[in-house]
Amino acid sequence: MKAVGYFKSLPINDPESLLDLELPTPTPGPQDLLVEVSAIALNPVDTKVRQRRASADGQTPVVLGWDAVGVVRALGSAVRGFALGDRVWYAGDITRPGSNAQFQAVDHRIVARAPASLSDAEAAALPLTAITAWELLYDRLQVQQQAERPVSLLVTGAAGGVGSILVQLARQLPHLTIIGTSSEPEGAGGAWLRELGAHHVISHREPLAPQIARLQAEQGLPPLRYAASLTHTPAHFADLVAALEPQGRLGLIDDFGPGDIDVMALKGKALSLHWELMFTRSMHGTHDIAEQGRLLAEVARLVDAGQLRSTLAEVMGPINAATLKRAHAQQESQRQRGKLVLQGF
Ligand SMILES: NC(=O)c1ccc[n+]([C@@H]2O[C@H](COP(=O)([O-])OP(=O)(O)OC[C@H]3O[C@@H](n4cnc5c(N)ncnc54)[C@H](OP(=O)(O)O)[C@@H]3O)[C@@H](O)[C@H]2O)c1
Questions:
Q1: Structural domains in the chain, sorted by start
Q2: What is the pLDDT of residues 232-265, one digit of tens each?
Q3: pTM for this model (two decimals)
Q4: Dihedral over alpha carbons 242, 246, 252, 258 (to 10 degrees)
């Protein structure tokens, strides 16, 4: 099968950073589907793993890629609920070979049928970010609780991949007022966020707490009970602590160094900190691993009901090393609005 992979961890402008390869088609294990991949999306994790993980033995290439849409071509002996020919979507498992390949073996419990109303490219934009946003909102921050009281949710980096679906999911809950951040609240970034459902857009180039205080004083913004800090957390941490109401809940998904945030700052207001990692369930085979398949099925249902839309920004071309190099370079800019997708081999 065709695949894109690499042996050495290199900057994206190095000719060997990503290579077109011919690899054996994987054999599905008992819990696996063998999926013929038709479209994939880029995520920051693709570039981070490329920068950090080389081939373990120098011989076996690393194949990246998590978001995928494709068709089931073979079923493991323990698989239930899927049939040959099903069109599926999933975000895979960070411990296994990825979706930058014509065929991929993936545990059926983290897979669901793709939304019928979306093209392969539109659907590929969603799974990884939808799982992250869903788990952060419902399993970690538990925004569905205390729904009788109007409260606010602040989303930093809201126009990126995760934020673009998180804002839409949060907008399903009528007790939440959503504030998204953008570098250009009055420009295209702000317009994108308002279209997706943000009630207010503020600038992450200015201190956040005074902007929240202004919205509360001038527009009656409800108390800030939740913050989803999606990126650059150390830069915004003091503002998030200042803006959250006492007993508020702070959710994190990004990477930073030891000592970059001071958890003692949370004590005075008894703020709670909630980590989300969308690979936890698959990486550890948790008792509730099948929740990911179930939430992807629910997201597909909401898409087909017209309540969520794809966050696709651009279809960059076919799945090969040349297109993937351009996509990695663009993803590394950290200025991405919505998602980059590649389609076909
Ligand atoms: N834990 C998990 O399970 C998980 C899952 C997915 C992603 N992640 C991580 O979460 C982070 C976000 O992922 P993503 O896919 O949403 O990334 P992304 O699409 O690359 O996010 C880009 C967004 O970040 C915004 N941004 C840039 N500088 C900022 C700043 N100083 N303050 C606030 N926002 C800023 C940009 O807005 P402007 O262009 O307007 O500046 C842009 O819209 C990444 O670190 C990723 O690795 C973790």
A1: 2-126+285-343 (3.90.180.10), 130-275 (3.40.50.720)
A2: 999 999 999 999 999 999 999 999 999 999 999 9
A3: 0.97
A4: 70
Nearest ligand 1 atom to the CA of 135 is 3
Contact 180, 327 (CB under 8 A): no
Distance CA 245, CA 248 (A): 5
Q: How far apart are CA 300 and CA 90, in angstroms?
A: 11
Pocket of ligand 1 contains residue 167 by CB under 6 Å? no
CB atoms within 10 A of CB 12: 18
Answer yes or no: is the C-beta of 235 below 6 A from any ligand 1 atom: yes
Ligand 1 pocket check for 43: Cβ under 6 Å:
yes
Quick one: 258 exposed, middle or buried, by C-beta within 10 A (0-12, 13-18, 19+)? exposed
3-state secondary structure 296-325: HHHHHHHHHCCCCCCCEEEECCCCCHHHHH
Position of tokens 């690899």? 23
Q: pLDDT tens across 104-154, in order?
A: 999 999 999 999 999 999 999 999 999 999 999 999 999 999 899 999 999
Query: Are the beta carbons of 281 and 288 closer than 8 angstroms?
Result: yes
Tokens in use for 122? 């539109």
Q: Which amino acid is it at 242?
A: A
Nearest-CA residue for atom 34 of ligand 1: 157
| CA-nearest residue, atom 18 of ligand 1 | 160
- 209 vs 41: CA distance, rounded Å: 34
Length of the chain: 345
**Pocket mutation for ligand 1, best pick of 129, 332, 334, 337 (most atoms within 8 Å of C-beta):** 334
